[in-house]
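Q: Here's a chain of 333 amino acids. Please give me its 3D structure as tokens.
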Amino acid sequence: MFQLVVRHRNLAAQLGLVVALTLAAVASLIFGTVAVPLDSLMDALAGQGNAIHRFVIHELRLPRVIAGALAGAAFALAGCLMQTVARNRLATPGIIGIDNAATAFAVASVVGTGISVAPPAMALLGAAVATALAFGLAGANGTRGYRFIIAGLGIGAIAGAITQVMLSRVAIDSANAAFPWTVGSLNARSTTAVITLAFGLVIGWVTALLLGRSLNTLQFSDPVAINLGTRLTRVRALSLACAVLLTGLAVAVAGPVGMVALLAPELARTLCRAGKVPLTASALAGAVFMVTADMAGRLVLAPLELPVGLITAIVGAPYLIWILVKPTSRSLT
């Protein structure tokens, strides 16, 4: 009976997040400098009605909503996996430095540094390099404790500095082309990068679900997890690989959008029953956060547009400070 109640609560949370995502997506499509009434929205989505509305929906807003939902889900799922593996709520791709490293590598392919590899591939490589460095610098502790986080913070700072150096040494046109990758933006994203992210998200999500039972045991101490039959090295390696894949592809689409990987899993854990890692709920919450933040960035100072990364930072920074000043707050589970 207890397990049945758990399923019902988790399912209700996921359905609620799906509804929230749908409402956020519809609102993002409707509101803007050019308002699109709901009935006109239906016509525009079907390729009918006012030509201006069709252009605004299909060429401007719908691609942003899709890119935002996919990138937000990827960031959040990566954050949930890293937090579970490290047993630390601060262990997210942005704080560990994966975002900044992926951004540095993507910018290197854009500003003409002699690297002709596409930004998505370079972002993946940067994420992998940052993870390997953080893991290596953590030494015997691996992903455990604050040494892993401190190493990641250092890597992220170095990667951020390298990005700024590259931007300062190229022509203004090249710097402008690379700028969205440094602040987090969903404006004019590459269709190829979005499609690649969609496939990567499916792969990462399915892999995470297959690891679900083992991830649940990681919330206990290593001896307990081993006695429950968990192969710790394999589970951690696969989880980190998924996090790297998701983060690299998400950065290639939206840039280093901070705080989504921190806030979304926390909301999911609040909504879902304790004791299980809320993988799907985290992804859905991340999609809601990203789509809502992007809409806010378009509307708050319209017609001036604020990058989505700035909005998520404004919202998430106070929560991060709260975590840091409340070290005795409730555990990850």
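Q: Can you summarize the key feature?
A: The chain has one domain: 2-325.
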